[in-house]
């Protein structure tokens, strides 16, 4: 745990190709991947937007016997990806995702979860505009990064094709100045 407080990322991260770099952001292309995800109303977890983390951590076996049908321990990867949904009159939901290790090429290769809230899905190839920042990924900081990145992408002629996702690479006990976070906006 010692190096983890200083932000050392010692787990598998998704491979990607940098298509464009500079102007404070990158355009990245990601190959297909398999993800485990859970969508929830944060009120289910006393208002904690990160409440789904424990559900996914139990699926891969972070805290003991994995809660999947094999049961097979699955290596932790980074980042943990979150996306907010809903709004208006409907309940605000959060979708949290763990990208599974590269060894899982198709959804059916991954062990089936025993918790029905966990969904295994294939993510096709993706292209994102990405800005990296350190510190705590507080709502205000994330909102500011999304606004600036959206503006920069539009200025540079990129077509935004969906809502942003937040990628966090470090455990919660990492000292804030050493945390690595990314705002990722899908583009054509």
UniProtKB/TrEMBL annotation:
Superkingdom of the organism of origin: Eukaryota
Family note: Belongs to the HEBP family.
Descriptive protein name: SOUL heme-binding family protein
Species of the source: Brassica oleracea var. oleracea
């Amino acid at each position: 745990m010692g190096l983890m407080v200083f932000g050392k990322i010692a787990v598998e991260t998704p491979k990607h190709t940098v298509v464009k770099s500079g102007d404070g952001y990158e355009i990245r292309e990601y190959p297909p991947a398999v993800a485990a995800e859970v969508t929830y109303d944060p009120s289910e977890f006393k208002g904690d937007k990160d409440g789904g983390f424990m559900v996914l951590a139990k699926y891969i076996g972070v805290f003991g016997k994995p809660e999947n049908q094999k049961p097979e321990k699955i290596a932790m990867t980074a980042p943990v990806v979150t996306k907010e949904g809903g709004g208006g009159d409907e309940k605000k939901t959060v979708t949290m995702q763990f990208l599974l290790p590269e060894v899982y090429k198709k959804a059916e290769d991954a062990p089936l979860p025993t918790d029905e809230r966990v969904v295994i899905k294939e993510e096709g190839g993706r292209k994102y505009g990405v800005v990296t920042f350190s510190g705590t990924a507080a709502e205000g900081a994330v909102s500011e990064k999304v606004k600036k990145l959206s503006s920069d992408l539009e200025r540079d002629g990129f077509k935004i094709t969906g809502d942003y996702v937040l990628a966090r690479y470090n455990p919660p006990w990492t000292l804030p100045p050493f945390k690595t976070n990314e705002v990722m906006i899908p583009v054509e």
